[in-house]
Amino acid sequence: MAGSAMRYTKVFLAVVAVLMFAAMALCIAATSLVSWTDMTNFREGLWKYCVESPSSIGTICDVYDSAECNAEFQTTRAFSVMSIILCAFAACMAIAMLAKSSLVKKLIWPLVCMTAFAFLFAITCWVVWFCRGESPKCYERKSYGTAFILQCVASGVAFLGAIFAICLACMLKKKKEKPIAQKEIVYPPPPVPVDTNNYTRVIGVEYRDLGYINPSAQYPAPPQYPEYPSSYTQPQPIYPTLQGSNVAPTYPQLPTAPLGKYEYQPVPSTAYY
């Protein structure tokens, strides 16, 4: 089970690293191209603009000194650069976790935060530019070029990387085990040794066989038994061993107890006729 979990972890980390590298490359391409706004004779990027002259001069490009709606322009630049940096950090972090598995549990949530912020910065970049292009005070430059589309794709790729990172974090999250409630064990009081030769019966339990009594119970007096005849109390005789193969063993006569009124009396044979 642990081997399959580690294999899935490496697959997810590899996917996150590839996606964040792809998002970084797309953000770099979108930031460097002069085609965020693409009109007939005018192209605009984050750092410079180009004007196509109908004469033989051709295309003239120049760096921005000041642009219309400067606040939105600077915001787009800042978020574009930050998205590149965060995508690079997230990709490097995923590669480090792939190289050393002991860093997975330590860096999984920082990786989630890094990919999430990279996605937010990438999507904020083109959203601000879109608001700038749709604003009447910025001359409504509604024609968007290749760089704008690349930035939109980069935000989508960063979103996929963040989703994979969140799924990996949920896989690695351990469920808190609830403590098992143990029942309190109540032990009985220690047994009181008694003489097992005495026969005592209390509440249907033969304590002669158990060898102990309940100290909290009230016991009746043991019954008084009459003395047994001496014939039952005498020790058993020791039988002699054979002294030869042809000598039959002799056994002493065992004493018999008087039967009293229950003694067997032979019936005369004449009683049946």
UniProtKB/TrEMBL annotation:
Pfam families registered for this protein in UniProt: PMP22_Claudin (PF00822)
Gene3D superfamilies: 1.20.140.150
Primary localization: membrane
Keywords: Membrane, Transmembrane, Transmembrane helix
Keyword Methyltransferase assigned: no
Keyword Isomerase: no
Lipid bilayer topology: Multi-pass membrane protein
Top-level taxonomic group: Eukaryota
Compartment annotation: Membrane
Segments crossing the lipid bilayer: 78-98, 107-129, 144-172
Cellular component terms (Gene Ontology): plasma membrane
Name of the protein in question: Claudin
Organism: Eutreptiella gymnastica
Source organism phylogeny: Eukaryota, Discoba, Euglenozoa, Euglenida, Spirocuta
